[in-house]
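Bit of a strange request maybe. I'm writing a small parser for structure token strings and I need a real example to test against, not something I typed by hand. Could someone generate the tokens for this chain?
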Amino acid sequence: MWGAFPKYTLTRICLLKYIKSVESVFEIIAEPNRRAILSLLVSSEQSVGEIERQLRMTQPTVSKHLRVLREAGFVESTVDAQRRLYRLKPEPFRKVDAWLDQFRRFWSAHLDALERHLDRIDPSTPMKKDKEKPTRPKPRT
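Reply from user aminoacidic:
Good idea to test on real output. This should exercise your parser:
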């Protein structure tokens, strides 16, 4: 019975579960108002009222988006007297960063290959990281 299953079935299930969690992260941050709220919270914690004023949203709209962000683990809140202050939680962003890392490596390798290719085509203008300014030929007199 067990021989019918591929050797890495459990690994595949875990990978699919990871992909689903990343997909849900992208679904949450796909909404422009939520991205705007997250952008505000990058610099400092904010109250609902401060977010309302800065983004020119109604209180119910801000509260709705903060609830979604809180339930997804993107933000957390603390109570300060009469105000509830919201701040970012790093964990979901680490997941997104880890997922994006594979693409950074992909593009980095391809850009390095492009650089080597361009160097082979025209070795007189090597592409260096310090990018020396090309010298202009002196005018003939």
